[in-house]
């Protein structure tokens, strides 16, 4: 009985993998852009997102520094 369940799981996994490969192949065949154009577009998109993430991290860092300064000032006043 355990062997039947294992076979069923492998069949389902195989079907998902095969479906993914077929889908990827269809996407490549029907893509309106060349491989180079698609890579360039993905590179621009990733660079843009990377830059925005850096900005957000910088803003968050400044907020943290300000909160730490406030806590230090309060601690000094209470001491």
Task: List descriptors.
79 residues; mainly alpha; 2 domains; 92% helix; elongated
Give the mean pLDDT.
81
How many structurally independent domains? Answer: 2
Straight-line N-to-C gap = 72 Å
| Rg calc | 26 Å
Low-confidence stretches: none
> What summary fits the major beta sheet?
none
What is the approximate shape?
A: elongated
Number of helices: 2
The total strand number stands at: 0
Query: Which H/E pattern describes the elements?
Result: HH
Please bin the fraction of helical residues: over 70%
Category from helices, strands and their pairing? mainly alpha
- Strand fraction: under 5%
In a nutshell, what does this entry contain?
92% of the residues lie in helices and 0% in strands. It is an all-alpha fold and 79 residues long.
What does this structure look like?
The structure is a single chain. The chain has 79 residues and is mostly helical. It has helices at residues 2-30, 35-78. The chain is elongated. The model has no long low-confidence stretch (mean pLDDT 81).
């Amino acid at each position: 009985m355990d062997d039947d369940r294992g076979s069923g799981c492998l069949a389902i996994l195989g079907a998902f993998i095969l479906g993914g490969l077929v889908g990827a192949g269809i996407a490549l065949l029907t893509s309106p852009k060349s491989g180079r154009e698609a890579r360039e577009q993905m590179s621009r998109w990733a660079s843009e997102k990377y830059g925005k993430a850096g900005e957000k991290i910088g803003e968050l860092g400044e907020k943290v520094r300000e909160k730490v300064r406030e806590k230090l000032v309060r601690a000094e006043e209470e001491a």
